Task: inverse folding
């Protein structure tokens, strides 16, 4: 019976890791005035925690294969919960950013350990299926988290931060219900070999793709709410509900990750997914009607749902024996690096132009990644199936 809880609990961990950003996306435009900051700077509420997460994942990647998985996961869940709740009490923008930095320390171990545990508990297409279920969970979260954040924000801009406290009881459940998937006899000390392993092109390119898809995701998370607010007068709750449409598409596509992978192969899914995200991002340049904006949000979710489960699976498949935890951690470092780079790079673009150029920049980037993935079309062939 306890084994039946493994995947649901791992999926919950992934949900709380994802919600660190998704919960606040639709709330960002409504934080600008009470925090006495600017539109360009407010993206740092997301960017600060992603920077911290990427930074501390360097530490996680160095130790993860030499210690127990739960010894990392449980403290990280507790840090996320405590720091998240503390954000509710932040008196100013600078304090909030400092607390988000601390929260990022907790986030740093959650998704890498969740992915690694799936990689150690499942094999073959069952692993693809489990990764698909995890991606489906985060897709459902992408629907519910923005809506939850919007509803809570109607009671105050800082109320959504209290939601993070739910990871505290989850940590207690994990202690007793999840197995230790990295027993003492399997632990390795391979810090010196991580850099050498990353030189393998297939691993390096997988990491680049991780950075890219989350850079594109945060273009949507940060800047679509401004379109909804400025052009259509959306409230924070309405923006949260609209942004969650991409999660519906993500959940629909991710739930079929196993069958899609078996039928088409990972490479074709990656290429198609990046092309679809590029089309969606480019569409926002010309989106003057609300129905078109909502369709483009949904379309982006389809592309993201095609890419993410395949990438998560590949991160566990390309890792050499005894180094899965380390490689998955580096993979996730680049995922959060993409989330950090998006508000920083695109804020510069926005400062010097407008939202159309922001979406045009990300659209171009998506098509470049799709082209390069096609160019390197043979690197994952042996892993399909």
Result:
């Amino acid at each position: 019976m306890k084994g039946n809880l493994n995947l649901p609990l791992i999926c919950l961990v992934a949900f709380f890791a994802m919600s660190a950003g998704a919960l606040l996306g639709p709330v960002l435009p409504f934080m600008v005035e009470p925090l006495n900051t600017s539109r360009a700077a407010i993206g740092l509420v997301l960017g600060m925690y992603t920077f911290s997460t990427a930074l501390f994942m360097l530490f996680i990647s160095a130790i993860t294969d030499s210690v127990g998985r739960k010894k990392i996961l449980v403290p990280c869940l507790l840090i996320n919960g405590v720091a998240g709740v503390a954000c509710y009490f932040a008196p100013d923008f600078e304090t909030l950013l400092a607390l988000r930095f601390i929260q990022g320390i907790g986030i740093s171990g959650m998704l890498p350990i969740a992915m690694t545990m799936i990689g150690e508990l499942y094999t073959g297409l069952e692993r693809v299926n489990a990764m698909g279920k995890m991606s489906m969970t985060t897709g459902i979260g992408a629907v519910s988290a923005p809506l939850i954040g919007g509803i809570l924000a109607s009671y105050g801009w800082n109320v959504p931060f209290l939601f993070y406290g739910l990871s505290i009881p989850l940590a207690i459940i994990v202690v007793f219900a999840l197995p230790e998937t990295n027993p003492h006899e399997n632990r390795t000390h391979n810090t010196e070999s991580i850099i050498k392993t990353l030189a393998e092109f297939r691993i390096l390119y997988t990491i680049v793709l991780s950075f890219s898809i989350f850079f594109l995701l945060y273009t949507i998370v940060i800047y679509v709410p401004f379109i909804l607010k400025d052009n259509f007068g959306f409230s924070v709750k309405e923006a949260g509900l609209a942004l969650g449409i991409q999660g519906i598409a993500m959940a629909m596509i991710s739930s079929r990750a196993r069958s899609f992978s078996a039928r088409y192969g990972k490479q074709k899914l990656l290429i198609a997914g990046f092309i679809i995200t590029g089309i969606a991002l480019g569409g926002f340049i010309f989106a003057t009607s609300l129905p078109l904006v909502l369709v483009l949000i949904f379309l982006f979710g389809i592309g993201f749902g095609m890419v993410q489960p395949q990438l998560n699976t590949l991160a566990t498949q390309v890792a050499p024996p005894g180094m899965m935890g380390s490689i998955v951690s580096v993979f996730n470092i680049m995922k959060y690096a993409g989330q950090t780079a998006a508000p920083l790079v695109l804020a510069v673009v926005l400062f010097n132009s407008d939202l159309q150029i922001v979406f045009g920049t990300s659209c171009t980037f998506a098509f470049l990644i799709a082209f390069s993935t096609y160019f390197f079309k043979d690197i994952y062939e042996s892993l399909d199936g």
Summary: The two ends are 29 Å apart (CA to CA). The first helix runs from residue 6 to 22.
